[in-house]
Each structure stands twice: as structure tokens, then as C-alpha cells.
Amino acid sequence: MSESARFPTLRTEVAGVPVQELVARYETPLYVYDAAKIEQRIADLQSFDAVRYAQKANSNLAVLDLVRRCGCVVDTVSAGEIERALAAGFSPHGSPPPIVYTADIFDQSSFELVLKHDLHVNCGSPDMIDQLGHVAPGRNITLRINPGFGHGHSQKTNTGGQQSKHGIWHEQLADCLLRADRHGLGVTGVHMHIGSGTDLEHLAQVCGALEQAALTVGRSVVSISAGGGLPVPYRDGETYVPLDQYFELWDATRKRLQDAFGHSVSLEIEPGRYLVAESGYMIAEIRAVKRMGDNLFYLLDAGFNNLARPILYGAHHPMSIAPADGDTRRGELEVVVGGPLCESGDIFTQEEGGFVCRRRLPAAVVGDYLVMEVAGAYGFVMGSNYNSKPLAAEVLVRDGHAHLVRSRQTFEDLIRGERIPAYEMA
């Protein structure tokens, strides 16, 4: 049977724990995270002065605790993420700031927490500068700049350019500096995140754009952020960014700024997907195998309520089959993989635009398990209760031991907060 060197299509274990053991203990659908892979990805980035984890990729408290123990600081984009960072043990204050709030707006709850804990803010719009400066003049802030161009595997994940809502438009930087000055806000950092990609020529453009923005801000800049967007392979043939060359580009930018300013400048990176994607596996049970014309379907007990990336932007995830009987002598078939939801779009093997495609996978029967791989980023965190489906359980495996880090949602959890009002029908 042909198997990919990187993504085998037959699997008996996850992070050293047998799939059958995980399912027997925690049932399906189930997210499993391999702590060793997270630790390795953090170690990859130690050349940078600070690794700031973008927790929107995976905000489970156990994951946050792990990255904190590994020396990372954290990025937050909501009140809930601020609360999570605090609950996971991150301090509000330190150098570099252990918690930064990065957003394009302040909603009321996040604004109150930023003020209460005196958190550092990475402002993504001119209005944020005015709103913060009005009630908390004298603080230091960072500016997130949209350089006018972007990159990403999907238009929906491109975070730069005029079609993106993110950041301060580069032509408005001078006005934003005047706004900050009116409120006595010190602009101490410049941040730029434009999406993911492996093209070093494109990344060099980002370095140049950030350097020009930092020079416009001037000597008050003491830190720059390369943003996130480091890709991970989801298919054979896809590659990583060559990290040594990537760091060299940013380090050269930092050194030129240090020469211009006459003081040291800290270099941050803000990975999300890169730290956690490859650590994650979603295990689902095959509950039906049926033919529809020319297509053979494997239908799972997990749907886009558990993993939304394929339906959102046609994201590709490697898949493997874990035979329930342990017999790995399986032929291969071309199949469509779908979920249980009452939606035609509940298909895991689709391309952007909703075009259904087939995947070559081992022959399987009802009761076998399908493992969705490279699912640690933007997986559980984008889950929903559509069709009144409960959120999956989450497990962290470290040193061969599986730890339940989120219990499966119960029906009582599902309806908590709902009320039937008392009224009379006419």
C-alpha cells in the first residue's frame, strides 16, 4: 500500500497512545494534542527575543500553561482571551509585556479588562488610540500597521491589503502619531502581520515595510514584531519557511533600526498555527459507508461543528484510518469524507468554493476511526453547537500520558442559560 512519508494514511496511535485506548477512555469526536510537538516548535524560534503565542489558534488552558512554561508570552484579541491568559498564569506586567491585547476595536468588556490590568495594547485602528488615550493618557502602545499588501492560502486568511480590515493603513501612520501625541501616548513598538507564506522575497517586502514604518515613528520604538503567519505543511510538497533565513531577514532589519535609533530594539515573533497545528489530531468514528452514484462516502460522527476549516475556506487536512480491529492490511479507495450535520456543505474533502473532491484512503468499515491530522490550530476553537451537537473533549498527551484537559460538553452545558418564558398563548 502506498503511504506518504509525512502523512501516512494508516495509523494505530497518536502521540504514542493507541487510538483504541484514547477512544475507550474519552469517546469520539475527540481532539488530542501532542505536547512534544508544541515544545519543539517553540524551540525552533528561540533566536527571536520573544515568542508571543497567538492563542486564537488554540486557547485551551492546558496549551496556554504549556507555552508559558516554555517561556512564551501571549497575544490576546478579546476579553475572554485576556481572562484565559490570566487563568493560565500569565502576569499582566513584565518586560516584554507577558500579555498584549491586539485588535482593531475595543469592545466594552475587553476595554474594561485592559484598563483594570493596565495591559499593553497593540492598536489596529486610529479610533483605538483616541479611545485609550481619552481615559488612560500617558501609556505606551504598539501600532499594528497594514502595509497595503498581504499574503495567505485563502482570501479569507489574508490579513494585509486594502480588502483586509486589519491594522492601521500605512498612509495614516503620521495622523496616528499625532493622535498618540495629543494623548501623551508613547508609541514604543511596531507590529506587522499580513498572512502566511513561504516566499522569502515576499517576506523581505514585509521587513522593508516595517522598517520604514518604524523609522517614521522614530526613536521611541524599542520593539518590533514580525507578526505570525508561519505556515506548516498540510499536504505533501508543502514546505516550512527556512527559519534561519527568515530570522536573518528580521535580524538585519532590527540591526539597521538599532543603528538609526542608537539603542537596542527587541525582535518578537507571533506564531499561532506554527506552534500548535501539527500537535493536533481529531479522532472521529466512521458511522456509515455508503455509495452515492460514483462517490463512496465515509460519514463520521464529527462535522464542521467540530472542524470548520474545510467548509470555511476549503482547507486541506491529512487523514488517516485507524482500524478498530487493529488489522492494517487494507486496500485503498477513493472516498468523500463527510459529517453528520444537516448541511450539504458538511464535507471534509472539499476545496475552496465548496467543490467536493475525493481522497485516497484505506478501505474502512463502520466502527473504524478516521483521524483528521494537523488539526491543532483553528480546530476546536472554531467549534459550534450547530444541530445541538456538544463540543468535543480535548486531551493533552505528554511523555506518553494522556490528560483530559476539557470534558465533553453535556446536554446541561448545551442549554445552560436558556429560558422558556412564562406566557399564555392566545
Structure explained in plain terms:
This protein is of the alpha/beta class. It contains 12 helices and 22 strands. The chain has helices at 19-26, 35-44, 61-69, 79-87, 108-117, 126-135, 173-182, 200-217, 243-261, 273-276, 309-313, 411-415; strands at residues 13-14, 17-18, 30-34, 50-54, 73-76, 99-103, 120-123, 140-146, 168-169, 186-191, 223-225, 266-269, 280-292, 295-300, 319-322, 332-338, 350-351, 355-356, 359-362, 369-373, 393-398, 401-406. Strands 3, 13, 14, 15, 16, 19, 20, 21 and 22 form a 9-stranded mixed beta sheet that branches. It has an 8-stranded parallel barrel with strand order 4-5-6-7-8-10-11-12, surrounded by 6 helices. A two-stranded antiparallel sheet has the order 1-2. The termini are far apart.
> What integer is the average pLDDT?
94
Percentage of residues in DSSP E strands: 15-25%
Number of helices: 12
Terminal CA distance reads 67 Å
The main sheet comes to:
9 strands, mixed
Radius of gyration: 23 Å
Strand pairing plus helix content: what structural class? alpha/beta
- Stretches where pLDDT is under 50 for at least 5 consecutive residues are 152-159
User: Helix content range of the residues, please?
Assistant: 25-40%
Q: Give the strand tally.
A: 22
How would you describe the shape? globular
Protein topology:
Layout: E1 13-14, E2 17-18, H1 19-26, E3 30-34, H2 35-44, E4 50-54, H3 61-69, E5 73-76, H4 79-87, E6 99-103, H5 108-117, E7 120-123, H6 126-135, E8 140-146, E9 168-169, H7 173-182, E10 186-191, H8 200-217, E11 223-225, H9 243-261, E12 266-269, H10 273-276, E13 280-292, E14 295-300, H11 309-313, E15 319-322, E16 332-338, E17 350-351, E18 355-356, E19 359-362, E20 369-373, E21 393-398, E22 401-406, H12 411-415
Parallel strand pairs: 3-21, 4-5, 4-12, 5-6, 6-7, 7-8, 8-9, 8-10, 10-11, 11-12, 14-16
Antiparallel strand pairs: 1-2, 3-13, 13-14, 13-20, 15-20, 16-19, 17-18, 21-22
Helix pairs in contact: 4-5, 6-7, 8-9
